[in-house]
Design brief:
mainly alpha; 2 domains; single chain; about 280 residues
């Protein structure tokens, strides 16, 4: 009775990778000379590996193409072509920054202290909302494509959130001279803006951050309301004394939160995060 023997699949894989010892190597090669079936299996493995390398290069090119955006931005910096190449996000960014400037300007029509109160109230909320919006599928078409392609596109949404946050913060800094805030006082709203936005981005790489974003906004408004409640009406907005973010310990904590959340977002940038499923 004749029993046909074939090379074990693991041994054949090791042989194709050049990892077989001399004794097994001789045995496998001797068998391959006489066995058409094992030669076909080996050919399929090698052919499949070559196709896998080709597929990897193709997908790498697709990811790079998505990151670069349209031709208009192909020669610009990465920050530009992952942000402004998304027209909906560009529109949202302009609208949010414009709203912040408009609110402060309208408040300044009264007195500078009103402008201070408006900037302190709204300044951290605009970047926070912008960071959350950056993860929506309506804003980032890569979120739709990532569900059907092996793309690590989390870095696209994270970088776009960074751009929106930066533009909103610069808008707030631009209107600061209209308020009673000095240069040192800018940190009272800027640090909360950075910390809240960074934490929102970090959360968004795991789950939908809509509810945390609303909670952060309510918490900040509550802190501002508490500050305003402790200041006589005639002096409200004249200075930021008594505001929770005016304390050095709190500012240090906000910086630490910003750094930690940014580190989480950086680590998660290539791991296909959950942001693609955000409605």
């Amino acid at each position: 009775m004749r029993q046909e023997w074939h090379i074990d699949a693991d041994d054949l894989t090791a042989y194709a990778a050049g990892e077989t010892g001399p004794v097994m190597l001789s045995s496998i090669e001797a068998h391959l000379v006489a066995c058409a079936a094992c030669r076909a299996t080996l050919a399929a493995q090698v052919h499949g590996a070559e196709h896998e390398l080709v597929d990897d290069r193709v997908w790498a090119g697709i990811v790079d193409r998505v990151d670069r955006g349209g031709r208009l931005f192909a020669r610009s910096s990465r920050l530009l072509h992952v942000s402004l190449s998304s027209p909906p996000l560009a529109l949202v960014t302009v609208l949010l920054a414009g709203l912040l400037v408009a609110f402060v300007l309208l408040a300044r029509l009264g007195e500078s202290r009103y402008a201070t109160t408006m900037l302190v109230c709204v300044g951290p909320l605009v970047p926070l909302v912008g960071a959350r919006v950056s993860f929506g599928r309506q804003v980032d078409p890569a979120g739709l494509m990532a569900g059907a392609a092996p793309m690590a596109a989390g870095r696209v949404a994270s970088t776009r959130a960074l751009v929106v946050t930066a533009i909103a913060c610069f808008a707030g800094i631009a209107v600061s001279p209209l308020t009673t805030l000095g240069l040192d006082d800018t940190a009272v709203w800027l640090l909360p803006a950075l910390a809240l936005s960074a934490v929102t981005v970090a959360i968004s790489t795991y789950v939908d951050a809509t509810i945390p974003t609303i909670a952060f906004a309510i918490a900040w408004l509550a802190a501002v309301a508490s500050w305003l409640g402790d200041v006589p009406r005639a002096l409200r907005g004249v200075s930021v004394d008594g505001l929770v973010s005016d304390q050095p310990a709190v500012q240090a904590a906000l910086l630490a939160c910003t750094a930690a959340a940014s580190a989480v977002s950086y680590v998660r940038r290539d791991s296909n995060p959950n942001w693609r499923t955000v409605p």
